[in-house]
Amino acid sequence: MAEEAAVDPRNTYAATKLAQEHLAAAWAATSGGTALALRYHNVYGPRMPRDTPYSGVAAIFRSALEAGRAPRVFEDGRQQRDFVHVADVAQANLLALGAQPPAGALRAYNIASGTPHTIGEMATELADAFGGPAPVVTGDYRIGDVRHVVASPQRAADELGFAAQVPFEAGVREFATAPLRPAP
Questions:
Q1: 8-state DSSP, 4
Q2: Confidence (pLDDT) at 40
Q3: Which long-range contacts does 131-136 make (Cβ < 8 Å, 24+ apart)?
Q4: DSSP3 helix / strand / coil % (the chain, rounded to 5)
Q5: Residue 21 pLDDT class (50, 70, 90 cuts)
Q6: Which residues lie below 8 Å from residue 143, measured CB to CB, with a gap of 6+?
Q7: How high does pLDDT run on average in the chain?
Q8: Across 103-150, where does the E strand assignment appear?
Q9: In the prediction, which pLDDT does 144 show?
Q10: How many CB atoms lie within 10 A of CB 115?
Q11: What span, in angstroms and rounded, lies between the C-alpha atoms of 4 and 16?
């Protein structure tokens, strides 16, 4: 999915993210300023907050493992996401500081790996690297969840020079034993 794709927020989280972009765009248009929106996809990595549903599925799985519980995978586990390591996100932020978007406009960038992985893959890789327990596929679901969300980072590559560098398997292995921080 490229940045130009039609937006269709299906839950409160997505709607508030889009609202932030609209506010920034309105400010840029009325002030002649510039604004960038970095659309982070499923961020994971060291120092993620533990025990909070707001930090993403990878941190939820990691918190469960830390507590000795099996990661609970919703639906059938084959939902696709674009997982991007926090070190890559940090690099994208640095690159964005040097960006020169057009005045009076907002420019959005997908900050993503560009490589889809399933929720089940994340749970399994993480549990294996952590040392278990194995994930449990529940069949449960969350209202408003989208089946597949995979981003194209092409604009970020072309305009910011961004390309994710941390391979999924290596990033998950690191995350499996990295310290978590207490939830805010």
A1: T
A2: 95
A3: 132/65, 133/65, 133/68, 133/69, 133/70, 134/70, 135/61, 135/70, 135/71, 135/72, 135/73, 135/77, 136/70, 136/71, 136/72, 136/73
A4: 40, 20, 45
A5: very high
A6: 11
A7: 93
A8: 105-111, 116-118, 136-137, 148-149
A9: 81
A10: 13
A11: 18
Q: 49-105, pLDDT tens digit by residue? A: 888 777 789 999 999 999 999 999 999 999 999 999 999 999 999 999 999 888 899
Give the per-residue pLDDT at 75.
96
Q: Which residue has the tokens 């679901």?
A: 141
Do 103 and 34 contact (CB within 8 A), yes or no?
A: yes
Amino acid letter at 35?
A
pLDDT(183) > 80: no
**Structure token digits, residue 97:** 């500081």
- Closest to 89 in 3D by CA, of 62, 56, 61, 122: 56
Q: How far apart, in Å, are the Cα atoms of 98 and each of 13, 64, 105, 157, 161?
A: 28, 39, 16, 14, 10
The pLDDT assigned to 167 comes to: 97
User: At residue 145, does pLDDT exceed 90?
Assistant: no
Exposure string over 16-44, b if 16+ CB within 10 A, otherwise e: eeeeeeeebbeebeeeeebbbbbbbbbbb
